[in-house]
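Notes from the 1:1 (GR / supervisor)

We went over the backlog. Supervisor wanted to see one worked example end to end before approving the batch request, so GR pasted a single chain during the call. The sequence is below; no edits were made to it. Supervisor asked that the structure be written out right there so they could see what the output format looks like.
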Amino acid sequence: MPLLSAPQSSTSQPALHPVLRTLIRGVLIALLLIGANVAATILWRMYDPAPRLVTVDLNGIVQTFIAGTAESDLSDDDKRTRTETFARELDRALQGLAARQHMIILPAPAVIAGAQDITEAVEKGLKP
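Structure output shown during the call:
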């Protein structure tokens, strides 16, 4: 054993090549970023779910209104005013319900099956 040589310990490990060390660090950082992105996506979906699709029978609501207005003995101008007010109130009720309940409201004939019908809720919103 030469006198000037460095003592060798039994626990020394060969040093990794600098390029390999950088590559491993890059892969670990990429995995960390991917994991953070997946976690953020899951949290986003939990706290901001997609709006529900629901239907409403607009034809039935309008037909009921028309039948009630036709049977009344109001003048044509009063019927026109009442119809314009009804149209504004119907729009207000639909817009408000959609915003409060996070829904997309479609007319019933546009959906074949699988969507909840909220016609009764809209009619209740139209009652004075």
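Supervisor's comment: The longest strand covers residues 52-56.
Batch request approved.
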